[in-house]
Q: What sequence folds into this?
């Protein structure tokens, strides 16, 4: 069963889709795969450490949404936020659909 953060993220993605926004789940991590030979394994890494959970595009802007369910940002997430903001993109830390809707209104998107 999905955890609380996954449930919040899914509800945010559904909310954004219903509103007509392009929003994509951003995955990061590593996955073990078989290498040359049945007994060898190697890791495939994808994404960037600290990357936000959702990338939303609206009116020519990239908006990165980090979803949290009570926990704080990690150091790598704070670093990713700094990079995103230094590039002129938006970064929102959201714990609910209400947080997303509030940010959309604040930015004049809704």
A:
């Amino acid at each position: 069963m999905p955890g609380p953060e996954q449930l919040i993220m899914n509800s945010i993605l559904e909310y954004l889709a219903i509103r007509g926004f392009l929003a994509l789940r951003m995955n990061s991590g590593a996955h073990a795969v078989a290498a040359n030979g049945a007994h060898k394994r190697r890791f495939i890494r994808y994404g960037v450490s600290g990357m936000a959970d959702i990338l939303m595009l609206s009116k020519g802007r990239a908006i990165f949404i980090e979803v949290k369910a009570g926990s704080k940002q990690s150091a790598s997430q704070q670093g990713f936020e700094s990079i995103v903001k230094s590039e002129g993109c938006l970064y929102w830390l959201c714990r609910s659909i209400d947080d997303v809707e509030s940010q959309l209104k604040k930015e004049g998107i809704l």
